[in-house]
Amino acid sequence: MLKDATAIVGIGQTPFAKQLPETEKALACRAILAALDDAGIAPSEVDAFASYTMEETDEVEVAKAIGAGDVTFFSKVGYGGGGSCATVGHLAAAVATGQASVGVAWRSRKRGSGPRPWKNTAVQLPTPGQWTRPYGLLRPADEIGMLARRYMHEYGATRDHLFNVALACRNRANQNPDAIMYERPLTREMYMTSRWISEPLCLFDNCLETDGALACVIVSAERARDCRRKPVYIHSAAQGLPAQHHGMVNYWNDDPLSGPAWTAARHLWKNADFGPQDVDVAQIYDAFTPLVPLSLEGYGFCGRGEGAAFTEGGALELGGRLPLNTGGGGLSEAYVHGFNLINEGVKQLRGTSTAQVPGAATCLVTAGEGVPTSAVLLRA
Amino acid sequence: MLNPVIDEDGAPFWEFTARGELRVQGCADCGELRFPPRPCCPHCQSFATEWRLMSGRGRIWSYVLPHPPLLPDYAEQAPYNAVLVELADAPRIRLAGNVVAAPDARLDSVDPARLRIGAAVRIAFTEIDGLAVPRWLLERG
């Protein structure tokens, strides 16, 4: 069984900025070495790696740069931000089954200073993009905006609900000195008068564009007890690719608004000792604000169509029903394909977050909804 | 502008649009329609396919109004509309497209205030680089 058999014992990160001078590879090495130092584990002991696709630095480059030992497990998870929690899940499975003993998951990106992926017209037109992009659905914001407008139409969700998500993330970023939006508060007026990106989504419904890297270290629960920091146990992990799912343009099945979160959630909770009502704090993937109400529904915090209403009354703020994205998330801390959500979950369960939920013992971390996704449940 | 990429699975779609027909791939054994086109039927696993003629009528399921930053040819027409049309004959198949004032009109040729979820539309075709590309006209033109 995977349950609590492994733990995250080290986390590391670089600064976050619109533009950092170092390469993607150098940033990856810095984050990984910081995570290993945090764990008190020598780089030569690393024998497993997991990361995502889309970026250039691979495990060969990383392993030889940091001085890793013989590596016996390595994996890459596809679908952009949908892969974040799966990197942890894959390493947890590898360590729990004896395929490796010290795993490093990482993400390094130059999305602040580098090119926007949607501008690469050579790679964006295979199925299903060939059926959508020629009509001007060019960017993820356009593809998710389409689902967002339908969601608003079906369930009476409003821009104020999306603002609740943006505001909760920004408020937590305002407490986090490492967050890009640390010193920049958000008001309702700023939100309502900001420019459109793809109506119904405005500027503040979109995540940041960030240079930066993060990493975490995974070992067995037994070894974790001897590490430098308090272990954060990987209680449950799941990926989700629903039947007849089409990726971010999930437009051709019975129910485009119930996405991969539902699939991942069923498996995640099935293997857990607790349920959504027992989650103390959540880190929910927020490349776009509407992904949060959709995820709240998918992971069972509320019923179908209730995700927008769930955000009312400060529910996502500290002291609310479900404090969310307590480092500021992709919307206001940094957009590093959701890896900052994983590390923030670890900080909460160590008790070291800049927006600490008192006594937090359980945390849900999710990857991108709307693409083949993944999630982990962490416990102190 | 980005032209549709024609692959083996989708090639018949474009052969039919060139004749002014909207056809959707279906299973020649169990009859189930599917989109985007693919080699075999997810319901009965048959590789026998047929292309079923659609009426070309549908309703707007949702839409967005993209604003820059966009690729240059699209930025020049922004804000424009991009819609999903739920086909009257096959409601689970929602074709992406654009609502325009006339088949060859610009992507921003319809006032966005006239767009509504549920609005009835019908297909038209415009020729782009030798391909007959679907466009959508409001039924209450």
TrEMBL record, chain A:
Thiolase N-terminal domain residues: 7-182
InterPro entries per the UniProt record, alphabetical: Thiolase, Thiolase-like, Thiolase_C_2, Thiolase_N
CDD domains: SCP-x_thiolase (cd00829)
Thiolase C-terminal domain mapped to chain residues: 254-374
Superkingdom, taxonomy of origin: Bacteria
SUPFAM superfamilies listed in its UniProt record: Thiolase-like (SSF53901)
Pfam family name, one: Thiolase_C_1
NCBIfam families: PRK07855.1
PANTHER family in the record: ACETYL-COA C-ACETYLTRANSFERASE (PTHR42870), NON-SPECIFIC LIPID-TRANSFER PROTEIN-LIKE 2 (PTHR42870:SF1)
The protein's name: Lipid-transfer protein
Species this protein is from: Streptomyces hydrogenans
Lineage: Bacteria, Bacillati, Actinomycetota, Actinomycetes, Kitasatosporales
Gene expressing this chain: ltp2
Automatic annotation (TrEMBL), chain B:
Family annotation (Gene3D superfamilies): 6.10.30.10
Transmembrane segments: none
Domain ChsH2 rubredoxin-like zinc ribbon: 14-49
Source species, domain of life: Bacteria
Pfam families to which the protein is assigned, alphabetical: OB_ChsH2_C (PF01796), zf-ChsH2 (PF12172)
Every ChsH2 C-terminal OB-fold domain range: 51-125
PANTHER family per the UniProt record, alphabetical: BLR3430 PROTEIN (PTHR34075)
Protein name per UniProt: OB-fold domain-containing protein
Source species of the chain: Streptomyces hydrogenans
